[in-house]
Amino acid sequence: MNGFVELTVMSTWRRLRSITRYKLNFAMDLVIGIVMAAGLLIFQYIVNPASLQSAVGSANYFSFLLIGVAFQAYYGIALWGSPGELQNELTTGQIEYTFASPVSRYAYMLSYVFSDAIVATLFQIGPMVVIGAVFSGVSLSLTDISWSLTVLALTFLAFCQLGVLFSCALLLFKNVSALSTLMNFLFQFGTGMFVPLQYLPGALQVLSFVIPLTHGIDLTRHFLMGTKTV
Amino acid sequence: MTNGIAVEAQGLRKTYRTGGKEVQALRGVNLEVEQGKVVCLLGPNGAGKTTLVKILATLLMPDGGWARVAGLDVVSRGNGVRKVIGYAGQDSERSAYFRLTARENLLFFSRTFHGMSNQEAKGRIEELADALGFADKLDTYFIALSGGEKQMFVIMRALISRPEVVFMDEPSKSLDPVAASNVRSYLKDYARARDAALLVTTHNMKEAEDISDSVIMINKGEVLFDGTPEGMKTSVMKAAVVQIGGNHIGEDTKRIITAIPGVLDFAEEGQGIRLYCRDAYEVLPHVVRTLKESGNRVPVGVEYLTLEEAFKIMVGGGAVR
Questions:
Q1: Cα–Cα distance, A94 to A88 (Å, whole number)
Q2: Does domain B240-304 have CATH number 3.30.70.260?
Q3: B263 and B276 in contact (C-beta within 8 Å)?
Q4: Given A130, B39, B116, B314, which is the most exposed site by the fewest CB atoms within 10 A?
Q5: What is the per-residue pLDDT across B296-314, written as a single tens digit (0 to 9) for each?
Q6: Do B112 and A10 touch (CB under 8 A)?
Q7: ipTM of this predicted structure
Q8: The pTM is what?
Q9: A25 reaches B (C-beta below 8 A)
Q10: A174 reaches B (C-beta below 8 A)
Q11: Which CATH fold topology does B5-228 show?
Q12: Which residue in B has a C-alpha nearest to residue A4's C-alpha?
């Protein structure tokens, strides 16, 4: 466990050193997170509030979308952070040094994902969600937030393990970009991330129920927005 | 370690299967590297050197045979092996984080991969950089280092944890002569001081002569020679050389000289002819007489084969004594 914590701390340190190296780009990254949150407000006006209210039990599409975007970011990190890093190391040749060192490969993969999530939370997803929450007009209790964070953490951990499996696939097949595209498509459209599941055809709804991400997003919306669960 | 043997392998085999073809990279390789010794692994491109090093560094699984590093089996005790080795592969140009300095990279690798404390890692980085003449480059971003400096970084990274066994794949590649000499000297001292074993692949025969206690010559996945550099020079049939200086020897004289019994081969060089033979002193009187009779008063002498010549003869299928 100590090894894993040390790995995560050092990976986070490395990321922070790297992203703050180019100050202007770093500042723009911060601003973009905030602008994106504000930008999501536009979508509030393209959805019929009555229809949304009837389908999910809330007419607040902005909050609905914001939670979807946050989950998209976290599942992306959990699922593709580790294969992405290994792909990069395969390309640069660094993987030989990594794998000739005594560090646990499993812990190394997870530490990469955790450090990515920490940095993204601090500088991208976090500011975006906080700014978004201010605009959303939703009143949140500490209990709602705690339950939502628990759901998010469980979903993230589940996807981390899937990410490790994809990393193994990457090491075996050297490139899994097609699989990544397919999975992203499936998760973005088949989990209710951006479009309420209730709007999807029946067969797709059945498929969406077997994807863990669906329930993570659904429960988080339930705790934060008071939506009906699927 | 077992009986002072840091690395040992018996009957190592490895076959690559790509595009429906099978390539036998290793065909039953045996080797031993003693503690405190530097061994150079020689061989032409595609001989199997890198495959052998990768198996010993637990990066590849052998198809047959076994290998132990520090007494630990590389397959069943891989993690134990990784705790005692240092590894420098061939990819030095991009194999670190571009947006970190050399010092930050080394700090990251030593703490993350080797569990060193911050203080210990910082001290070791300074110590290595001073010894290898890299101190003024430590705070340069990795991306801004030259090819040779990146190679030096990779060598430092391999040594950061003070490993008992070091594997280096062409360490002097891209290094200028001064830096290469520094590295060779440091590696030799490191092996002696820490009783460490170093297995180094190289195409640089001078490096092999300078640094190694012994050399292993490998070609087409098989060990052709295992012994000292001097032993390698004398192990080929054409181990002796009669060197004839001057470049104005007539064609007729050349033809007579190269046909002298005992001359196994010859090479024309800018400054004369080198006659390869088993016994130079048997051939020499005939050469001198022929030159005298043809009026060619040029320098003649007996020399040893260079390691490079021995290498070429072996690779070319030259018989071994």
A1: 8
A2: yes
A3: yes
A4: A130
A5: 888 898 888 888 888 888 8
A6: yes
A7: 0.87
A8: 0.86
A9: no
A10: no
A11: Rossmann fold (3.40.50)
A12: B112
